[in-house]
Amino acid sequence: AEDIALGLHNIEVDENLEKRTYDLKERVKELNCLWEISNLIERPDISLEEIIKGTVNLLPSAWQYPQITCARIILDSQEYKSKNFKETVWKQASDIILHQKPIGTVEVYYLEERPQMEEGPFSKEERNLINIIAERLGKIVEREQAEEEQRLHTAMMDNVDEAVYLIGLDDLRIKWTNEIFAKMFGYDPGEMVGKKVDIVNAPTESTPTETRISIVDILKKTGEWHGEVENIKR
């Protein structure tokens, strides 16, 4: 009887070890997928479309049965599909959110039936993974839109006929100037960025620093300032 009990115990230990080993391999696959997506994002000059295409082809390898897994990413009505893509009833999906609104989905399908788990044939860890990927794609889209808006803004400001500059009210330093503004005061493009704004203020009855502080105080209180300031060229 003791031999039978010992044998059953050994079988149970072996099964637990096998399950832990399997689970560990699955977590490694998921981490590798996230790592590969991060590598995609960090490539210089990579486009949003290239990131989406690369991501959709990485997804199947991170799920439990990669040989029967396919994926699709829908973004702004544009579809990106992995190889052998086919819609089936065995589906897991997560919305891509931008500014609290869905703009697309990340979808993973099994091409064949598999044993039931926490979410159909999919595990709770796979649910977490697809949610993380969808959230990351939403942030990438948000970043791309912000960068595009900044490029358009810069192009517009660089092409106006007047001198324009931006300062930060928190540190009172120049954040950006167009080329006309820089040349007007004897600086190269971009050279003034990071400098205190009073470098262009000429000494009068007030020092340049006093003039700057006075203007900024009014801006903080009212949101606007009207007046004239004498400037000085380098």
Automatic annotation (TrEMBL):
Q: What is this protein called?
A: PAS domain-containing protein
Residue ranges of domain PAS in the record: 149-195
Question: Cross-referenced NCBIfam families, in alphabetical order?
Answer: sensory_box
Against InterPro entries, the record matches this protein to: PAS (IPR000014), PAS-like_dom_sf (IPR035965)
Q: What is the lineage of its organism?
A: unclassified sequences, metagenomes, ecological metagenomes
Q: Which SUPFAM superfamilies match?
A: PYP-like sensor domain (PAS domain)
